[in-house]
């Protein structure tokens, strides 16, 4: 059955037909109606988030948890969401993840006119551009399939004319909505440098595969007709071109990153004069030129505002020297110039070349861009030819975070992690973190995971530091409360921004210039956001910590646990170090990963390095034989 | 001295490699040389591997030392010395603090600290000086001054007047630690 839909409605329909389970957005014209229409399908969980970054993180979390997911926003929203987007490009997905960016050429209702196609090569993710509602729907499927096949988020870029104009769409039956089972894969989803470097290389490989895919995917189509001039175009501009020049040869690009270089070269060779017709930036034009192919583009078309059929027609005719009333004053001059540098396969049949010397016309010689070679690997891998045991960074002795990760691991919880010293909880022996995308993503990511996979809700926590919570965790917590999330947020309040070297933040009571400042009250803040369950706990008291975490994770409503203890490097430590007497060699305490504890290889007993031990007492709580105690006691 | 020198300082987070390289840079400056220093840290502040590269000479362009091009490596810890040996140029000198700091995988018994590490470094490196910097500093009253002991050793193999080094110490070390550090420097300088 065919029906008339806007591009936004068609994308929503696509989400319904192609198995999307989770959708998140912050409203923004012209993207708003996508989510409003998805909301009409009760099969799909959908929500407004407090901003685009949070929406993106909810999407990333849902995709990691195994659901097909769509996140939508207007172009400027992608600026806000860029942080999680760029790292999601590294982690990839489990269920397909599509980001819709609705751009607004002509600024019908926007503060600027940025061309978000630039985000695709910048973030290193593939991009699709539909040119009508049917394609908008079809490309939701293509994007989801590509996302899962190539393990990447996919950018679906539309513009106001696609979003808000209606065209016929063939409706189909929805496929089965499946959510892939969740399993932990820290090397893929925790982007600490060691793991991210591996994923960085994966992206290069993925790019190669996408480069092959884009040559064959049918949304990149040559529509060959009159070879005297050819036009490369994408998005709604395709429609303008088709109407202005029904007989022209076109290369219609539906996948605009990576570009099909061979297809472009093939097309360029088959036509006498080559134009690029695109709205806003010379995105295609610059890249095609970089292939060594001369094209005519922004020399005749504006790099701002929307195009139209008449604009395309008059400007191209002027360029071809086919009109007496050229829209451009100097149209003919420019036409000659353009022709002189264009790639004409045959000077004789080339209209634009009629009045220029034939030798000025050169056969198109596309240059294949250099393949990344081994060198790129060499740069990334730290050259370490000798077999030395690695020396990973570790939490300091006496770090107040250590016991929290120990407990999370003990309880086998799924841990949505964040950026700070505590990201070190990823490494052995704690190995307690499942994901780490960007600052603030722990909380919103956990919401996405829970929405994708409700079974996870009762074994899921997010963990975030005081400074990071203030950076951008607070919006995620707002989202959890607003959208009925139930997972537990643990704020590791160590009274400082520790990872970067102990800077102050709005919860420490001091400014950079040393002035006293009001202190953010996390309990009051959480309550003000609507969290009813807020508990403070001493992270060095393992029994209570464990009991509190168990209770809060079990509670079917959002809760916040604040673990309070200053960073071990900012307290003047007066505690006596521990000693180990009567060790049975069970190694239970070594699971903490405290660098002050080690196993004596000779005696197979644990020894405490009294120069490092802060006397925090965590290890003593793990020892069943009471072997670890204050020195001298 | 030849017109340029590449010096690599390697150690473990918290050992004071950065202060040491600042002293070194100051010395270069006082000699009227160009100098570039690059340090990579971040997570490495938490007991990870730390590397500082100092290049000095009449004119320095790249801030990075290529593998096989360090003239001197000062290693604050043995395993780190072992790890970075490949950076030394043939005929280059290595100064190693005879201190062992076990990384976490070793502490918890998941990996082994290489046996006879000094011997295997010796097999790869022609000019090796092993210094008990930690012991020397401890005897002077503060194990933290081991980094300056090592600077003293470095000074003794470089062709720069001792006074220049001492002036750099004065400029770079907080007054209350100066005396200790002066003694630590002297201890290093006279080890050879
Ligand atoms: S700096 Fe502070 S917060 Fe960071 S690992 Fe050390 S003790 Fe923990
Ligand atoms: S008390 Fe135990 S856990 Fe705490 S610093 Fe000392 S050795 Fe480490």
TrEMBL record, chain A:
<feature type="binding site">
    <location>
        <position position="583"/>
    </location>
    <ligand>
        <name>[4Fe-4S] cluster 1</name>
    </ligand>
</feature>
<dbReference type="GO" id="GO:0030976">
    <property type="term" value="F:thiamine pyrophosphate binding"/>
</dbReference>
<feature type="domain" description="4Fe-4S ferredoxin-type">
    <location>
        <begin position="604"/>
        <end position="633"/>
    </location>
</feature>
<feature type="binding site">
    <location>
        <position position="613"/>
    </location>
    <ligand>
        <name>[4Fe-4S] cluster 2</name>
    </ligand>
</feature>
<dbReference type="GO" id="GO:0046872">
    <property type="term" value="F:metal ion binding"/>
</dbReference>
<feature type="binding site">
    <location>
        <position position="586"/>
    </location>
    <ligand>
        <name>[4Fe-4S] cluster 1</name>
    </ligand>
</feature>
<dbReference type="GO" id="GO:0051539">
    <property type="term" value="F:4 iron, 4 sulfur cluster binding"/>
</dbReference>
<dbReference type="Pfam" id="PF02775">
    <property type="entry name" value="TPP_enzyme_C"/>
</dbReference>
<keyword id="KW-0411">Iron-sulfur</keyword>
<protein>
    <recommendedName>
        <fullName>Indolepyruvate oxidoreductase subunit IorA</fullName>
        <ecNumber>1.2.7.8</ecNumber>
    </recommendedName>
</protein>
<keyword id="KW-0670">Pyruvate</keyword>
<feature type="binding site">
    <location>
        <position position="616"/>
    </location>
    <ligand>
        <name>[4Fe-4S] cluster 2</name>
    </ligand>
</feature>
<feature type="binding site">
    <location>
        <position position="619"/>
    </location>
    <ligand>
        <name>[4Fe-4S] cluster 2</name>
    </ligand>
</feature>
<feature type="binding site">
    <location>
        <position position="623"/>
    </location>
    <ligand>
        <name>[4Fe-4S] cluster 1</name>
    </ligand>
</feature>
<dbReference type="Pfam" id="PF01855">
    <property type="entry name" value="POR_N"/>
</dbReference>
<keyword id="KW-0813">Transport</keyword>
<comment type="function">
    <text>Catalyzes the ferredoxin-dependent oxidative decarboxylation of arylpyruvates.</text>
</comment>
<keyword id="KW-0560">Oxidoreductase</keyword>
<feature type="binding site">
    <location>
        <position position="589"/>
    </location>
    <ligand>
        <name>[4Fe-4S] cluster 1</name>
    </ligand>
</feature>
<comment type="subunit">
    <text>Heterodimer of the IorA and IorB subunits.</text>
</comment>
<feature type="binding site">
    <location>
        <position position="594"/>
    </location>
    <ligand>
        <name>[4Fe-4S] cluster 2</name>
    </ligand>
</feature>
<keyword id="KW-0004">4Fe-4S</keyword>
TrEMBL record, chain B:
<dbReference type="Pfam" id="PF01558">
    <property type="entry name" value="POR"/>
</dbReference>
<protein>
    <submittedName>
        <fullName>Indolepyruvate oxidoreductase subunit beta</fullName>
    </submittedName>
</protein>
<keyword id="KW-0560">Oxidoreductase</keyword>
<dbReference type="InterPro" id="IPR052198">
    <property type="entry name" value="IorB_Oxidoreductase"/>
</dbReference>
<dbReference type="GO" id="GO:0016903">
    <property type="term" value="F:oxidoreductase activity, acting on the aldehyde or oxo group of donors"/>
</dbReference>
<feature type="domain" description="Pyruvate/ketoisovalerate oxidoreductase catalytic">
    <location>
        <begin position="13"/>
        <end position="190"/>
    </location>
</feature>
<dbReference type="InterPro" id="IPR019752">
    <property type="entry name" value="Pyrv/ketoisovalerate_OxRed_cat"/>
</dbReference>
<keyword id="KW-0670">Pyruvate</keyword>
<dbReference type="InterPro" id="IPR002869">
    <property type="entry name" value="Pyrv_flavodox_OxRed_cen"/>
</dbReference>
